[in-house]
Amino acid sequence: MISYRLMKPQDTPGVFRVDQDCFIHNWSLESYQNETENILSNYIVAELDGEIVGFGGFWLVIDEAHITNIGVLEKYRHCGIGDSIIKEMLSLACQNGCVGMTLEVSADNDPAIKFYKKNGFVKEGIRKNYYGNGIDGFIMWRHNLEYEK
Predict the structure, then answer these.
(1) Does any domain span residue 15?
(2) Residue among 4, 104, 124, 146 flagged as catalytic
(3) Does 43 participate in catalysis according to the annotation?
(4) For the whole model, what pTM was predicted?
(5) Which of 4, 43, 76, 116 is catalytic?
(6) Which residues contact 17 (CB under 8 A, 6 or more apart)?
(7) Does residue 149 carry a pLDDT above 50?
(8) What CATH number is given to the structural domain containing 75?
(9) Has residue 148 been placed in a domain?
């Protein structure tokens, strides 16, 4: 059974492994270690039999939650883990007084865009060449943080 909880410092190697499996523009292990000490950071991990199989994080900036990353190991995708992670993130953001959650997503990442739309996010802007090589970033927002069960 998959459990969801806040990330601990000892989880960073597992989170980094998920990052390596999911992203081209990877964060470093040190970046995730630093996140465990960042007072703005809030990370949820999905754990199965002692293995981190997914994670999601956001920075709490005044009354907004800015998603940093959400990732699930490829062999565990399409099982609802990402939806559960974002549900936990929305709940945590609400508990911390957030009124909105935002992120940037690569304009060419159709699966991620579809995932965020399914979870109540809408495209509200574009950051030109945000990812380099002419790839824009879509700015997406969710203003109602209550999660429909």
Answers:
(1) yes
(2) 104
(3) no
(4) 0.91
(5) 116
(6) 52, 73
(7) no
(8) 3.40.630.30
(9) no
